UniProtKB/TrEMBL annotation:
A single MF term (Gene Ontology): transmembrane transporter activity
Topology class, membrane: Multi-pass membrane protein
Short name of one Pfam family: MacB_PCD
Organism of provenance: Sulfuritalea hydrogenivorans sk43H
Record lineage: Bacteria, Pseudomonadati, Pseudomonadota, Betaproteobacteria, Nitrosomonadales
Subcellular location per the Swiss-Prot or TrEMBL entry: Cell membrane
Keyword Transmembrane found: yes
GO CC terms: plasma membrane
Annotated ABC3 transporter permease C-terminal domain residues: 282-395
Protein name, UniProt field: Peptide ABC transporter permease
InterPro entries: ABC3_permease_C, MacB_PCD, Macrolide_Exporter_MacB
Residue ranges annotated for the MacB-like periplasmic core domain, each copy included: 21-245
Family: Belongs to the ABC-4 integral membrane protein family.
Secretion signal, residue range per the UniProt entry: none
């Protein structure tokens, strides 16, 4: 038999039992679709986290109070113990470092905002004018916090776009008075909507005020973080070393943790890539189950077509021809199932993107190739046994059974 005859034989055999063929294709399609959708979900989470951290700014070095247990960054050691707090004076000392372009102190807390007859809970960030450039914010109305002494800031505030929309609607907000806790502040600016944030904190819902006002509001003199912008990418490590040395000299011991934006990105990227691969591996188990189903279906097919096989061998078909015919049928079922599953997976990822537009749920190329390859390989692997059984049938006994 020629190759075209073998393929035609396999196609006709598959078409002769539509329910059996449909179930085999469906099982394989579900396995491939599961791999595509779950890896799209995992890789989308990785891209989302990386984008959010990238939005923090460029050439960024972050100083955290407390000494972490290891030399590198991990989400666990980000939660440091705090033997000595960071202060505004610490942050100001870092502005004199030669490799540092800007420094922004940061303290944060929750408070109620009361304005225009409306009341809601908001996150309040106390910082300085430099925070605007470090985070690459864009202003929609007015201006950001004015340059001032970090220890005596004016009673002003900059609000996020969502807060402005909820409290003032379409009316101008700049110049209006708001009350944060027991403080009355005047709005000097409204940030442009960005929808960006880290750890679930959306800057569209944050009120920015001078760091001294925030410390007075929360009755504290400590800082949550100090953000440093290095002069260039090549000076990030120098800024990290210099900041650690200065704060060690001020505190008398090394009791702070200095991390870089690259370290944070690399850690989360590594963690989420591993998570995506693990999810893909779990989903691939369904492909093995689908392969077993294909093998079972092919074994039944050998039994149902015993007379046909016997007739072919009586007419001179060799054992290798019979084996190739059944292997071609197994490959055909696996390939159609894999392509169908790929289409279903892409549709599932599309639905995810429609439901969550900010979530880039696209399957990675390696996952698509692995899913299609595994599906085809599994189908062929589990098709070997039925094909060999069919090839070994004795033509006389096969014809006598029918």
């Amino acid at each position: 038999m020629r190759t075209t005859d073998i393929l035609r034989f396999a196609r006709d055999a598959a078409a002769g039992y539509p329910l059996r063929t449909l179930l085999s294709i469906l099982a394989m399609a579900i396995g491939v679709a599961a791999v595509v959708v779950l890896t799209a979900l995992g890789d989308g989470a990785r891209r989302y986290v990386v984008e959010q951290f990238s939005a923090l700014g460029s050439n960024l070095v972050i100083v955290l109070p407390g000494r972490s247990a290891t030399g590198g960054f991990s989400p666990a050691n980000a939660l440091t113990t705090t033997p000595r707090d960071l202060t505004v004076d610490d942050a100001f000392a870092l502005t004199r470092l030669p490799s540092v372009r800007r420094v922004a102190p940061l303290t944060a807390g929750n408070s109620e905002i009361n304005a225009n007859g409306r009341l809601r809970e908001v996150v309040v960030a106390g910082t300085a004018s430099t925070y605007f450039d470090i985070r690459s914010f864009k202003i929609a109305q007015g201006h950001f916090l004015p340059e001032s002494d970090w220890s005596r800031g004016p009673p002003v505030a900059v609000i996020g776009s969502k807060i402005k929309e909820e409290i003032f609607g379409g009316a101008p907000a700049v110049g209006e008075l708001i009350r944060l806790g027991d403080r009355r502040l005047r709005i000097v600016g409204v940030l442009k909507a960005s929808g960006q944030g880290v750890g679930g904190l959306n800057t569209d819902e944050v009120v920015f005020i001078p760091v001294s006002v925030a410390q007075s509001l929360f009755n504290t003199n400590t800082l949550f973080r100090v953000l440093i912008e290095a002069r260039s990418r090549g000076e990030i490590e120098a800024a990290k070393r210099e900041a650690a040395a200065v704060l060690k000299a001020r505190h008398g011991e090394e009791d702070i943790t200095v991390i870089t934006q690259d370290a944070v990105l690399a850690t989360f990227d590594k963690l989420l890539r591993a998570l995506t691969a693990a999810v893909a591996g779990i989903a691939a188990i369904s492909l093995a189950v689908a392969g077993i189903l294909v093998m079972n279906v092919m074994l039944v097919a050998v039994t149902q077509r015993t007379a046909e096989i016997g007739l072919l061998k009586a007419l001179g078909a060799r054992a290798v021809t019979i084996r190739n015919a059944f292997m071609a049928e197994a490959a055909m079922l696996s390939l159609v199932g894999a392509l169908t599953g790929y289409g279903l997976g892409l549709f599932g990822a599309f639905i995810l993107r429609q439901m969550y537009p900010v979530f880039p749920a696209y399957p990675p190329d390696w996952a698509v190739v692995a899913a299609l390859g595994t599906a085809l390989g599994t189908g062929l692997l589990f098709g070997i046994m039925p094909a060999r059984r069919a090839a070994r049938l004795d033509p006389v006994q096969a014809l006598m059974k029918h």
